[in-house]
Write a structure and sequence with these properties.
globular, single chain, binds (3R)-3-hydroxy-3-methyl-5-(phosphonooxy)pentanoic acid, four-stranded antiparallel β-sheet
């Protein structure tokens, strides 16, 4: 048995969004989704076995390891309990977790964080249940999109079949298939006011929710083909439709959820301006104010320059498709 393990897992950006759940407590999605796993936005998690006592959860940042607020540690604690029950092992853990990017601001920090935690717990317990079960266990954290972050490249997460389905995601193309870039305009670093867990549950209250479900089969088809054929011309318009509709549904949920900030709109306008100038770049957003701009490598510098010049943009992250989780030799705690 290993005493300690550290795993780095990436965030992902959804091309087709998971928005709505049929079972919130198990994070079963109401619709299939497709995402690209990132390279730079990552979480690292060290898990150590303890001799006894209680679990200990630490957030590691510039000030070193410290006890996080209860809202943060409670979700980790609940997932440790789930993993312990699944493994059938009466062990205790010491956990240190760290993000390379702002947490809770719509940059999928829960996806990367829970993917890293799940994989590090499996490693420290010396368990390898295979890729589908790894994905399903990450999903059960409550952050469904963590199911996609255990893989690199381009990933599809189908709706679970009837019965006791484990509902895993699966890769559809590796990271070398298409070197897409994701230039992230960070306009907000504070955690969002309404969690995506809450957003999933409010979504069916929007009059636009049912309509989106009818449009999804064709969108999933187009995005799958666009990835296969490496066609940004086909992918881009669907990316933008999906992002706008996710927020349309959020804004018309009951009660409504407004994730956008004024600078969000400024970035969307800048992306349209880039296209008018002949730069093929398309925006998408998850449940937050920050904007992801997807482009080919040759256009990345022009996109960075345009976004960095906008007054409301605090930081630009140059990201792109990445290889998925890795185990590290250096430990956080
Ligand atoms: O995995 P959750 O519960 O944090 O929800 C993710 C929701 C979106 O990021 C908006 C869409 C997605 O598919 O990642």
């Amino acid at each position: 048995m290993r005493a300690r393990s550290t795993v780095q897992a990436p965030a992902n950006i959804a091309f087709i969004k998971y928005w709505g759940t049929t079972a919130p407590e198990r994070a079963l999605p109401a619709n299939p989704s497709i995402s690209m796993t990132l390279r730079e936005c990552v979480s690292r998690c060290t898990v150590e076995l303890r001799d006894g006592g209680e679990d200990e959860i630490l957030l590691v940042d510039d000030e070193g390891p410290h006890v996080p607020p209860p809202a943060f540690s409670d979700r980790i604690q609940a997932h440790l309990d789930r993993l312990r029950e699944w493994a059938g092992r009466e062990v205790r853990f010491r956990v240190g977790t760290q993000n390379s990017f702002p947490a809770g601001a719509g940059l999928a920090s829960s996806a990367s964080g829970f993917a890293a935690l799940t994989l590090a717990v499996l490693r420290v317990l010396d368990l390898d249940p295979g890729p589908a079960q790894r994905s399903a266990l990450a999903r059960r954290s409550g952050s469904g999109s963590a199911a996609r972050s255990v893989f690199g490249g381009f990933v599809r997460w189908p709706v679970a079949d009837a019965g006791p389905a484990i509902a895993p995601a699966a890769p559809i193309a590796g990271p070398d298939h298409w070197p897409l870039r994701d230039i992230i305009a960070v306009v907000e670093t504070e955690p969002k006011a309404v969690s995506s867990l809450e957003g999933h549950q409010r979504a069916p209250g929007s009059p636009h929710y049912a309509r989106r479900q009818t449009l999804l089969p064709e969108r999933l088809e187009v995005v799958g083909t666009a990835i296969r054929e490496r066609s940004l011309d086909r992918l881009g318009p669907v990316l933008e439709e999906e992002a706008v509709e996710l927020h349309l549904i959020a804004m018309s949920s009951r009660p409504p959820i407004f994730y956008w900030r004024p600078a969000t709109l400024a970035v969307l306008e800048a992306v349209r301006g880039l296209r008018e100038d002949g730069v093929a770049a398309y925006f998408t957003m998850d449940a937050g104010a920050n904007v992801h701009v997807v482009c080919e490598p040759a256009e990345a510098a022009a996109v960075v320059e345009r976004l960095a010049a906008l007054p409301g943009v605090r930081r630009v992250i140059r990201d792109g498709v990445g290889p998925g989780p890795i185990e590290l030799d250096t430990h956080l705690i």
